[in-house]
Request: fold
Amino acid sequence: MAGGVSAVIVAALTMVIALYAAGSEPHRSDEGVGGPGLFVKWLLPLFHLVSTLATVGCAGALLAAVVLLRTDGGPLGLQGRRAIRDASNSAIIWAAATFVSAVLTAAILLNTPVDLLRLRLDDALAVPEVKALLITGILVVALAVGVRRVQTSAAALLGVLVAIGALVPPALTTFPRNESYVVLAGAALVLHVISATTWVGGLAGLVRYGRASRSGLPLVLERYSQVALASSIVVLVSGVISAVGRLAAKGGGYDAVFDVLTTKAYGGLLLAKTVAFVILIIGGWFHRRHAIGDLETSGHRFWQLVIGELIVMAVAIGLSIALAKTI
Reply:
């Protein structure tokens, strides 16, 4: 519990610090009165953070029910049913935060106060970013309702597929339109978001559900290690492709990638996120090589390292949100 709260605080602080460091923090409008205020502009990244953390919680719970606590398609055990309830609750938060983000996004992009958006409903629904968020919100509501009474891991797998589908629309609208590199960067980002959510969510699921049974923990850990290895490889490859595409788009060509990486705020945040990723790779290798044996005794060292990994992942989440808001 303390580790989870710490991770949320770290993610929020990292996001705010990164936004200020990159000069991407929300500003008051220079167009006079009439638009959304500074408070509304700050709410958008904050709700993006809430949505992301709820997504991770939902993914971790579903992954626990389907993979980590797998019963070969049979009835879920006590921890599996607990995971399904957690997945449904997290999906409710995810959906609520997504719908709020859609409203805030429409207000900011249309430079319209939130309470007057009803007068520009057609314009708001025509914004691709808003449509993507609404689609995601609807899918996640269906997920929250659909998995609530799931009794088997095979049925829970359908929930995983819906969750993956819900991650796609916002990723496809992350990059500006009409860029020659948007297809490359956008496609890679979809894979990056799905694999990163699986990796981080899986670790969160391991912490929440794996500790319930010391005898069953080695098997759960072995299953998570397989998921983490595959996810980290996809995160690395897709992240590089997506980053190169975005940097090329910012610099006007692939020959400008290095200059943008080393001179622009976006490049600085990207390098910081890369460092966090490298730390996670090293930490994962270290605790699987040196701390797993501690499970046979108290397990304190192992869990301390796992909590440390969650904190670094929280930093990466905060940096990711700041990156999305950096132009």
